[in-house]
């Protein structure tokens, strides 16, 4: 049970609730599954006047996954996921279709880029974390995206490879309606003994005819009930001309509860002083009542001051406490 819970914690940032999706239709060649989550989140932090404020960040996600056999080795796939928060329109997080087989999967539409699997090595908290894992849109989830993913068993070890290309066009995820394109690629090699190495790179054009670049490297190790990981980022023309950062994460499973801690630091590497864009320590605890329902508490110790580059307002320096409950279906 414990190793399964660590796997759930490590996969916290992946596609919502696919593992618990319920099959609602199937015949000899095709199947359709529906999944999602209801997640209540109360976020407590100080505002610019220093007064404590509670914000409702509750959300609902629903996804539909379809698969049909084309031949004995080739199949067709389709996936949609939407998210709704109170007072907002439904956000289409995923909207894609493609083909798959022993070679992997190829999808087109709104789908993941290639660097999310690298940042997921440390982005394992129920709410906080990943402040040093910001990705350009072409390396994250975006539309007009042709993406490939393949996972290969190498005699006990495993190699996962991703690559994607985002075509120029009216693409709000990249840069409004400006005609830009971009790409990213990454790989993770996992040894049978629990050690994993990951690296990836992405580029995209910017509105002022420059090029935004992301480079990530990750390392993780799983041993029994323990999981530790590290992430390093080196980027250009993103949050600043030159950005460097890192995140360290650790998780421990005790019974049905997973405890996680992370440290994030992101800096403007070209600044002469006050270069911190993010600087925080976060801890959380998530209790899994069963595979469908969990509750968690998460606290972020914010180390920024108003003189730092990443704190435009007093509220940006506030600590944050979150209580959440999540039902997956």
Kindly give the count of domains.
Answer: 1
- Distance from first to last alpha carbon: 20 Å
Strand content: over 45%
Give the C-level CATH assignment.
Mainly Beta
Cα shape: globular
Q: State mean pLDDT (0 to 100 scale).
A: 90
Helical content band: under 10%
CATH superfamily: Porin
What class would the helix/strand composition place it in? mainly beta
Domain Porin: 7-304
Protein name: Porin
Pfam families: Porin_4
Signal peptide: 1-21
Secondary structure blueprint with pairings:
Layout (H helix, E strand, L loop, with lengths): L1 H9 L11 E5 L3 E17 L5 E5 L2 E11 L5 E11 L5 E11 L2 E9 L3 H4 L21 E14 L2 E10 L5 H4 L6 E9 L4 E11 L5 E13 L2 E11 L5 E13 L2 E12 L7 E13 L4 E10 L17 E9 L1
Antiparallel strand pairs: 1-2, 2-3, 2-4, 2-18, 4-5, 5-6, 6-7, 7-8, 8-9, 9-10, 10-11, 11-12, 12-13, 13-14, 14-15, 15-16, 16-17, 17-18
What does this structure look like?
Helices cover 5% and strands 59% of the residues. By secondary structure, it is mainly beta. It has a single domain (2-328), classed as Porin. A 16-stranded antiparallel beta barrel has the order 2-4-5-6-7-8-9-10-11-12-13-14-15-16-17-18. A hairpin with a 7-residue loop joins strand 15 (257-268) and strand 16. Residues 7-304 form the Porin domain.
């Amino acid at each position: 049970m414990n190793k399964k819970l660590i796997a759930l914690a490590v996969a916290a940032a992946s596609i919502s609730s696919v593992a618990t999706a319920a099959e609602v239709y199937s015949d000899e060649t095709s199947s359709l599954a529906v999944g999602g989550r209801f997640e209540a989140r109360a976020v407590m932090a100080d505002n610019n006047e220093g007064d404590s404020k509670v914000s409702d960040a509750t959300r609902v996600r629903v996804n539909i996954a379809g698969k049909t056999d084309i031949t004995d080795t080739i199949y067709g796939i389709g996936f949609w996921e939407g998210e709704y928060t109170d007072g907002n329109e439904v956000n289409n997080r995923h909207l894609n279709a493609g083909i798959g087989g022993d070679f992997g999967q190829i999808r087109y539409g709104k789908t993941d880029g290639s660097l999310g699997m690298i940042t997921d090595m440390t982005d394992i908290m129920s709410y906080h974390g990943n402040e040093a894992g910001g990705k350009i849109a072409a390396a994250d989830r975006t539309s007009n995206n042709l993406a490939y993913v393949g996972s290969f068993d190498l005699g006990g070890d495993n190699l996962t490879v991703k690559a994607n290309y985002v075509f120029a066009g009216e693409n709000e995820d990249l840069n409004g309606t400006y005609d830009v394109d971009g790409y990213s690629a990454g790989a993770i090699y996992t040894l049978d003994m629990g050690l994993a190495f990951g690296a990836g790179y992405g580029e995209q054009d910017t509105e002022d005819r420059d090029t935004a670049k992301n480079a990530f490297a990750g390392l993780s190790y799983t041993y029994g009930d323990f999981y530790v990981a590290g992430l390093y980022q080196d980027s250009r023309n993103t949050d600043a001309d030159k950005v460097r950062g890192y995140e360290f994460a650790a998780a421990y499973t005790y019974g049905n509860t997973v405890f996680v801690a992370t440290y994030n630091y992101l800096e403007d590497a070209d600044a002469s002083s006050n270069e911190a864009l993010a600087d925080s320590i976060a801890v959380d605890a998530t209790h899994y009542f069963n595979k469908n329902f969990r509750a968690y508490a998460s606290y972020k110790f914010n180390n920024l001051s108003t003189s730092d580059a990443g704190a435009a307002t007093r509220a940006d320096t506030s600590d944050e406490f979150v209580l959440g409950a999540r039902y997956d279906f």
